[in-house]
Amino acid sequence: MSKKEHKEEKNQETSPAGKDAEMLGNKATATDTSVPVEKTKTEEPGDLSEKLDELNDKYLRLYSDFDNYRRRTLKEIGDIRKHASEDVVVKLLPVLDDFERAIKAFDSTENAQALKEGIILIFNKFITTLTGLGLEQMKTIGEKFDTDFHEAITNIPAPSEELKNKVVDEVEKGYMLNGKVIRYAKVVVGA
């Protein structure tokens, strides 16, 4: 065997086409290296680069759309946080005006009873405004002690048997806003 034939035989054994031919049962000789292979749909290099450019363009547009959406929602959330209390403040401004008028009235009147009535009117207006915004006071005295609504400051001996494990006194009122506890009532519990 000559060196040339040996080299071609070695190439056939190591080449994928030669191995495929052997696996398929085709008998390929050292001189015949062509193997019948099914033709697959191949695209031209220009078609592939156009498709790549098209897909890359779609990707960049989608990425930029998402980035714009993210920025826009972050800006909207920031605006909502900045202006969230505006509605509450606007509703409380009349109460602030009433307090200013009451302070001026302290200087011009000597009638303590009229001042007291004016302050009570302002307080009721304030409570009405807050109730309209969803605030409600918790009822605590005489109620069964509940850790979901009450914070026990201390326990005292119950004045009667029916006040055991019930709220005897309220140190600080508790409030709920739209059904959610925003401040627990500080209470004294009968033991």
**Total domain count:** 3
Strand content: 15-25%
Number of strands: 6
Indicate the overall shape: elongated
CATH architectural designation of the largest domain: Roll
For this structure, the CATH topology of the largest domain is Nucleotide Exchange Factor Grpe, Chain A, domain 2
CATH superfamily of the largest domain: Head domain of nucleotide exchange factor GrpE
Structural class determined from secondary elements: alpha+beta
Alpha-carbon distance between the two ends: 111 Å
With strands numbered from the N-terminus, the spatial order across the biggest sheet is 1-4-5
By CATH reckoning, the class of the largest domain would read Mainly Beta
Query: What's the Cα radius of gyration?
Result: 43 Å
- Characterize the biggest β-sheet: 3 strands, antiparallel
- The low-confidence runs, each spanning 5 or more residues with pLDDT under 50, are 13-30
Share of residues in helices: 40-55%
Order of helices and strands: HHHHHEEEEEE
